[in-house]
Design goal:
Layout: H1 3-21, H2 23-26, H3 30-54, H4 60-88, H5 92-98, H6 102-107, H7 110-124, H8 128-131, H9 138-154, H10 158-191, H11 199-208, E1 210-211, E2 222-223
Antiparallel strand pairs: 1-2
Amino acid sequence: MNRNSENRLNAVEAVLLILADNVVVWSVIAALSGLVDLLKAKVQLVRDLRQIQEADTTGITARKKVLKGTLITKTEKVAKGTKALAVATDNQVLLARIGYTHSDLTHASDNELADITRLVYETALPLKAELADYLVNEADIELVGTLQQQFLLAIPGKRGAVAVSAQATQDIEKVMKEIGVLLKEKIDVLMATLEPTNPAFYEQYRNARTIVDLGGRHDKPEEEGK
């Protein structure tokens, strides 16, 4: 991650800390709960991508093993949620399409795993609204798609690993922009309604939204999303 992205992530982490300490205050606005959960999921995605980005390309085998394990874990979560939805709605077609086990994933060849995880992603994505009731959110599904692409690039070896790292950098910037839009266009707007009744909390929130450049003295603070 470059310094700008690191600073922006630090600011978002500060926002999440303030929100965690003041749940009682902002939870009176029902719409905020889902948005905050989405924000948390996107921040976790950035953390996962950063691990991929910063991995040493000399440790190709170990690096691919870690990536494969993460892909399997995240795919299992989405698959289990989708399977639960299929059972609850008696959707036998969906159940047959998504009925992969832990053994199926761990014993699949690299290319087979890439195909299976892609199928899980493509099956779950159109069902993202329904899957929220089964503890699978949109960010969980998108992470499977992202990791599947990273794994495909990692299969060939060192050249692939370098490509994975470069792709992770691009993905981080994409997610950070999504976080900026989520904060500026949705969460900030709803939080502003709390200012009249909870000015102290709102001031804390606004302060947390300020990005402080920890790497230099001459850059002016800015807010995520600007």
